[in-house]
Amino acid sequence: MSISTDFVTFYLGGHYFGINASDVLELNRNLEVTPVPKSAKFVRGIMNLRGQLVPAIDMYERLSLERHSGLTESISIILRSDGFLVALLVDDAGEILSLDQDTFEPPPSNFSVISRELVMGVHKLSDRLLLILDPQLINRRAEKSKNQLLLA
């Protein structure tokens, strides 16, 4: 018997990504991001989410992807992991997919080092690859940046 997992999917620079649905708190469109001087390059700034400051992670920068679209709108995927919130800024949200573990494979070796550290693996779908991100690693990196912002 195969175990299935639900993934929230999203698009970024022509790639199709997924993240475990149990780590996603909510999705928002066009939340205001306040830039923070001296923050990490991948931290676009902070958002006020109902009174809580949340680091906004530019996923193009975080994954070292070339920005192809001129979109000014973005979708914020709010993750909760280990009691910490972070917003991933992506191009567009996809659907929720329930996938069996038997379609999961390690990330391809031709990924960049930065991408490989955040991509846990891939699911081969009938028409494309779904790249699965590790939310705990994204949160650990963002939490360090948030702590640096608060100390500055």
Description of the molecule:
The chain contains 3 helices and 11 strands; from the N terminus they run E-E-E-E-E-H-E-E-E-E-H-E-E-H. The strands form 2 sheets. Strands 8-1-2-11-10-9 form a 6-stranded mixed beta sheet. Strands 3-6-7-5-4 form a 5-stranded mixed beta sheet. Strand 4 and strand 5 (52-58) form a beta hairpin. It is globular. The protein is of the alpha+beta class and 152 residues long. The chain has one domain (4-151): OB fold (Dihydrolipoamide Acetyltransferase, E2P) (Beta Barrel).
List key phrases describing it.
OB fold (Dihydrolipoamide Acetyltransferase, E2P); 11 strands; 5-stranded mixed sheet; 6-stranded mixed sheet; 3 helices; alpha+beta; 152 residues; disordered C terminus
Which helices and strands, and how do they pair?
Layout: E1 4-12, E2 15-20, E3 24-29, E4 43-49, E5 52-58, H1 59-62, E6 75-81, E7 84-90, E8 92-100, E9 104-105, H2 113-118, E10 119-124, E11 129-133, H3 135-151
Parallel strand pairs: 2-11, 5-7
Antiparallel strand pairs: 1-2, 1-8, 3-6, 4-5, 6-7, 9-10, 10-11
Number of beta-strand segments: 11
CATH architecture: Beta Barrel
Query: Which class best fits the helix and strand makeup?
Result: alpha+beta
Low-confidence stretches: 148-152
- The DSSP helix count reads 3
Query: Beta-strand percentage?
Result: over 45%
Tally of discrete structural domains: 1
Main pleated-sheet profile:
6 strands, mixed
Radius of gyration: 15 Å
Tell me, what is the CATH class? Answer: Mainly Beta
Q: Please provide the ordered H/E string of secondary-structure elements.
A: EEEEEHEEEEHEEH
Mean of residue pLDDT? Answer: 84
What spatial form do the alpha-carbon principal axes imply?
globular
Main sheet: strand order: 8-1-2-11-10-9
Helix amount? 10-25%
Distance, first to last CA: 52 Å
- Under CATH, the topology can be stated as OB fold (Dihydrolipoamide Acetyltransferase, E2P)
Task: Name the CATH homologous superfamily.
Answer: CheA-289, Domain 4
